[in-house]
Specification:
The chain is an all-alpha fold. It is elongated. 1% of the residues are buried.
Length: 352
């Protein structure tokens, strides 16, 4: 019997181990992959294998794809369809999950314009300022599709960054003046003000010859006859020679007055008041000579000579006697001026 018991018990123990459903060597494979090292209790509880949001403690901000904005409320399977999280390591770019409706016409980086909170772009102008074509002036109110013309409303193919790229039709259609015939520059900004709301002359940039005061409302054709917008002189007399020759008070022609009108005049309408400063030559704004008409001293209107002796009632002999011993004295108006440049009498006013 003892021998029989030694044979039966090992057999019984073998059979028990053979039919047992709980083998100590059996393990369940994780659906997250064999390399997954995070503890189950980070996402799951004893309630079951579904994600338990009450105890969920995985810090996604430590990954290459922090969950911000609307990404915080997404179901994990939307990005991790296989639940093997290591397979999604390279999917950190927007286009990995989102269809590029712009067809790469604005690049593949969605975050240049969009935020994780919404697809709505709230700062188009500010974003555009960082491009090759900052939106200035009237361009800030222009609809995107006016410049980005394509087969869909979501493509933003670039036509170009030069004015002519968008405004070629306006350039060719302009007849007053004819831009094409006059060989105007295709760089519209040379003549037109980007902050103007129209192409008319009120927004025209004429800074190379400022149109101020009397020049402000002059028709282009007055200075540019026959649509000639090249080789036009900026000298006053090129337009105002008739005014120069017809002036009689005082007479300008004859070599007395410069043909450079700016010596005496500004662009004030009517040529007055003049900017000529007579004080630099002879004081007439104060003292004994103030209030005199020009022709009182400039008796010969054909030239710039002046007369002292015609106004001052001194006989030549009397004047000669008063200047006995004065070197360089002569009975001439120019001699009077040389010694009396301020118009005052007496030796103390003599020029030294």
């Amino acid at each position: 019997m003892r021998i029989l018991s030694f044979i039966i018990w090992p057999l019984v123990l073998y059979l028990i181990g053979l039919f047992s459903t709980e083998s100590p060597n059996t393990t369940t494979e994780s659906p997250h992959g064999k390399d997954f090292k995070i503890s189950c209790s980070t996402c799951h509880s004893s309630k079951g294998w579904s994600l338990d949001k009450e105890i969920y403690a995985f810090d996604h901000s430590k990954t290459k794809m922090p969950l911000l904005g609307s990404h915080k409320d997404l179901n994990c399977k939307l990005c991790h369809s296989s639940l093997v999280f290591s397979e999604a390591k390279a999917k950190t770019e927007c286009v990995s999950c989102h269809t590029d409706i712009h067809n790469q016409s604005v690049g593949k980086y969605c975050d240049k314009c969009h935020t994780p909170d919404s697809w709505i772009v709230s700062n188009v102008t500010g974003i555009h300022q960082q491009s090759r074509f900052p939106l200035l002036g009237v361009h800030t109110m222009t609809e995107c599709q006016q410049c980005h013309k394509s087969e869909t409303l979501h493509r933003y193919d670039v036509l170009g960054i030069e004015c002519f790229d968008c405004h070629r039709d306006k350039y060719l259609a302009t007849s007053s003046p004819n831009h094409n015939t006059a060989n105007f520059s295709t760089d519209c900004s040379q003549c037109h003000y980007i902050y103007s709301y129209e192409w008319a002359s009120s927004g025209f940039n004429h800074d190379f010859f400022p149109l101020t005061l009397g020049h402000a409302n002059v028709a282009c054709s007055k200075c540019h006859p026959n649509n000639n917008f090249s080789n036009i002189s900026t000298e006053c007399v090129s337009c105002h020679l008739t005014d120069y020759n017809s002036t009689t008070h005082p007479v300008h022609s004859g070599g007395c007055f410069s043909t450079n009108c700016t010596v005496c005049h500004t662009t004030n309408p009517g040529w007055t008041p003049t900017s000529f400063d007579h004080q630099n030559y002879f004081p007439i704004s104060s003292g004994n000579h103030s209030g005199f008409a020009c022709n009182a001293c400039h008796t010969n209107p054909a030239n710039c000579t002046f007369s002292c002796i015609d106004c001052h009632e001194h006989s030549q002999s009397e004047t000669n006697n008063q200047h006995n011993g004065v070197g360089g004295y002569s009975y001439l108006s120019t001699a009077c001026y040389n010694c009396h440049p301020n118009g005052s009498g007496g030796g103390k006013h003599f020029r030294k």
